[in-house]
Amino acid sequence: GAAELGPYRHYMQKEIFEQPRAIADTLEGVKGITPELFGKGATAVFKDVRQVLILACGTSYYAGSTAKYWLESIAGIPTSVEIASEYRYRDSVPDPKTLVVTISQSGETADTIAALKHARSLGMEHTLTICNVATSAMVRECRFSFLTHAGVEIGVASTKAFTTQLVGLFLLTLALAQVRGRLTAEQEDAQLRNLRHLPAAVQAVLALEPQVIAWSEDFAAKENALFLGRGLHYPVALEGALKLKEISYIHAEAYPAGELKHGPLALVTAAMPVVTVAPNDQLLEKLKSNMQEVRARGGELFVFADADTRIESAPGTHVIRMPEHYGALSPILHVVPLQLLAYHTACARGTDVDKPRNLAKSVTVE
Ligand code: G6P
Hints:
It is a single chain. By secondary structure, this protein is an alpha/beta fold. The protein has helices spanning about 1-5, 10-15, 20-25, 40-50, 60-75, 85, 110-120, 135-140, 160-180, 185-205, 210-220, 235-250, 285-295, 330-350; strands at about 50-55, 80-85, 100-105, 125-130, 145, 225-230, 250-255, 275-280, 300-305, 315-320. Helix 11 packs across helix 14 and helix 12 (about 235-250) runs parallel beside helix 14. The longest helix is centred in the middle third of the chain and has 22 residues, at about 185-205. It starts with a helix and ends in a 17-residue tail after the last helix. 6-O-phosphono-alpha-D-glucopyranose binds near residues 58, 60 and 359. This is Glutamine--fructose-6-phosphate aminotransferase [isomerizing]. Its EC number is 2.6.1.16. It catalyses: D-fructose 6-phosphate + L-glutamine = D-glucosamine 6-phosphate + L-glutamate. One of its GO terms (molecular function) is carbohydrate derivative binding.
């Protein structure tokens, strides 16, 4: 009821603002990095596996897509990410030394559970879930689990579940890196410090809300939007586009910025806002040239730029300045203003934000 909403207009907004608390709760009890965070006996299994297969749907799939970058670069373990409803119905090549990881807020998504059972039927017994509901079917079905402590998520568009899943997946990456001899004690300490500082870092990003509200008035009048990101932030762009289409009904799609020339550049006109995720990482110069390509075609850029990128506002280029680059955990910061942009754009259009048409919170039937 209204009382539980406190100062917020919708559950989605409340849940976006709960993220610092949700992340802190998810990290509570994590004293150090060890596979045993995922259950008894995980150390032996983590030592034995030679690849990771992630299965999920919707926003949880984008969390998995982000984790692939971490798992390959930090833990050095080959990783594939599959949409559950695709994986379960296709012929694939199973390897018993695979860690099968399902990601699910509800733990009840029918396709994800079926994909897990399909993987097991192919002889893959090492199963692990990152899940927000301790009593769910997914937790019961998987040998290992890590519970996110997002708390109950009511808005159909997932927000705090996503960022806490990323925290769980980052811990999984560090645990796999550790058993593979790729994490020194110093690196472990540094990564834990970065994780523990996340609630404060996310809080700082939430303070950008008034600037995002100012942009949302522009967005509310659009019918299309393009989201660009590269590398680790390409899945963030995908998640930003998903949020916008789900709740504002504006057609949005995300592209890896390097693919612009292979299609989406044909759509770029002054009527097409181009939202750009611009962290100060090793791909920044490449991204800046993609931004030039958009400007050269009269496209209007809306850029979320790390403070240390030196990307400046100019005619046709709007910039919201994020904190300084946050390294590997940067996706957790960059997704937050995209959630806020979708939320405020939907509010400006007057849609039913918490219950978008045709969508359900938990898809327990096919
Ligand atoms: C539905 C929800 C999404 C969610 C997806 C997967 O589509 O609307 O917010 O990401 O299901 O749900 P799960 O509970 O498995 O994460």
